[in-house]
Predict the structure.
Amino acid sequence: MKRDRMKFGARLGLAVATVGVALMTTATPAQAVSFDLTSCHISTGCPAAGTIFGTVTLTTAGTGVTFDVVLLNGNTFVETGAGGGYLFVFNDTVAGSAVTGITTTINGSVVTVIPGGVTGLTNQAPIHADGTGDFTAGIKCTVDSDCNGGSTPDFNDLHFTVTNATIAQLTTANANGNIFVADILCGAAQTGCVGQTGPVDASIPRVPDGGMTVTLLGCALVGLEGLRRRLRA
């Protein structure tokens, strides 16, 4: 009977180990990463530290990456000198990359951004955003005056794709340690800066979804160790 229990325990331990190895070898790398826009550089005043002005999510799409930039609390994009004359800036020096398919959501409908258009540019000369450093790519209005007024533009999300690039290449921090910057007009629900404009940035990604695989693998190994101790006893 004791020998049978030992054989069963050994087989079960081997099964747990096999599951752990399978999780390690078949896990799909994280295909998306998200950032919070939390660092404020609005010269006329900022909300309390840790305030989240919006989010930036990058998702792998074939040989490119889609960006979903969403502002919160009624904040909207604006184009001022403080943001380098761009609505949103990031880093992209990848040869052959390009920005395509820029859209936003107005009144529940996905539309091409504002009459007059919005342009996405990569591999640019340094774009300087006040307090956040220099960047090499961004989204801006084709006609600057369409986007630098107090009430225009009136959208709070930007969606676009950068072709021929990877998430790793598009999340490289600049010399100031910043990855993304949005130039915003603070909305009525954004306590501490209502009606003010200026850049907000992100420098630290959230934990990727791939962490679940690590958790499962850890559980498998803990189970195996428990079996080993019982067999020894």
Remarks:
- The chain has three helices and 15 strands.
